[in-house]
Amino acid sequence: MKQPGNIPTHQLSSQHATLHRDKTRTSSFGYDQLPTNKRLTGFEIYSTDGMIPDYGPAKSGFYRFGILTQGSLQVQLGLEHFKVSACALNFSIPGQIHAKSNVSPDIFGYYLLFEENFLQNLLSQHHLGAEFPFLNYTGQQIFNCNQVEIDELTSLLLKINEELHQLNSGRETAIKMYLYLMLLTARRSYERQHLSVPLSDPGTSSYLVTRFHKLVSEHFLSLRQVADYAALLHVTPNHLNRIVKNISSRTASDAISEMLAQEAKVLLRSTSLSAAEIAYQLNFSDPAAFSRFFKKSTGLTPLKYRLQETKNGAAVFGQ
Asked: Are 244 and 252 in contact (CB under 8 A)?
């Protein structure tokens, strides 16, 4: 199998902001009305006031750090679905397919967007995912904190916002240090709760399915066969299929297909590539095979899905 080409991802830019912010609702917090001369490369910060409630599926070239202080929403990370409520942190990482929906009317919180190299000089390890377990596929990316931790995180975040709106000396360094302290506070909560320890015994079926879902979310573009994942998990393909079907009511192949369909949705929503170009990019034998796969997965042809998303306000780059 040939390796898939580079998949476009959303980058931090004014264009990206239109995908997650309601232009008719403005806020004085963070980047919403921040003058250009006060903006930093590779970093943005917002409150949920003015956030578009439904977002994705999408892929981003940066990290997202969300703090929910009130209300609830549904978050999807790859094949995993979560209900996020007050006093929760949620993270997504570059290249990860993610979405949010069912945002409650009383929602409030904050989210920070930042690129890998924004904190490069402060890292003791080579990359963020090595230093902070919730910033890689193997860790728990959504977890609750206690109120003291939430208050500490919010205090640091408000200091970032204060620095953003001024032009004091050492401003960018201070913002980076406050962000690093926020990540450190989150890691201490993670460690306090022993979240690095599996929620279920490594020998149980539920643990195997969770590991399988995380591996598929990370490798589905290059690994398309159940046998590939069975080898990574040190089980037989038949055993993996049986356990996944028992736990999730779908086959392991269905899970791989779901991730591939999500990737196709990202390309249809976020690029101007034709269905034929997407078929080639995703390694289908021909456009007809891709169209059959997509309709079986979603109930719509690729063209109808793109038209529906465009009508609903999804941005298609290049158009």
From this structure: yes
The architecture (CATH level 2) of 205-311 comes to Orthogonal Bundle (1.10)
pTM for this entry: 0.85
The domain 14-192 is classified under which CATH number: 3.30.470.20, 3.30.230.10, 2.60.120.280, 3.10.20.90?
A: 2.60.120.280
Residue (of 263, 76, 296) closest to 273 by Cα position: 263
Residue-wise pLDDT tens digits, 123-182: 876 789 999 999 999 899 999 999 999 999 999 999 999 999 999 999 999 999 999 999
d(CA 288, CA 272): 19
Instruction: Kindly report, as residue ranges, where domains of CATH 2.60.120.280 are found in the chain.
Output: 14-192
Question: Which three-class secondary structure state does DSSP give residue 266?
Answer: helix
- Counting Cα atoms < 13 Å in the Cβ hemisphere of 207 gives 9
Between CA 312 and CA 268 the distance in angstroms is 13
Cα angle vertex 149, ends 197, 20, to 5°?
A: 90
